[in-house]
């Protein structure tokens, strides 16, 4: 994986890390969960209506948008196939 692109200076990054580390573990976990939920909401808000209204396809689209660069494509394909196989039988929407 390549280094993430950032516009934050190393000094500012160190300051932020120090501020986060002053928080309790519980607070840091809560912040991470809140950020994850915000990211999910933004992804779902940007989905076409036909994907957003289908629970399985919404989960798949969210998974792909969040993890497509981090997961092996073969593994991702197997997860998607498994999610669809567990859903009530309904063909996926046209894209």
Secondary structure: elements and pairs:
Layout: H1 10-21, H2 25-45, H3 49-52, H4 55-67, H5 73-86
Helix pairs in contact: 4-5
Structural class: mainly alpha
Number of strands: 0
Tell me roughly what share of residues is in helical segments. 55-70%
Low-confidence stretches: none
Description:
With 95 residues, the chain is mostly helical. It has one domain. It has helices spanning 10-21, 25-45, 49-52, 55-67, 73-86.
Comma- or semicolon-separated keywords:
5 helices; mainly alpha
Give a quick rundown of the structure.
This protein is mostly helical and 95 residues long. Helix content is 67%, strand content 0%.
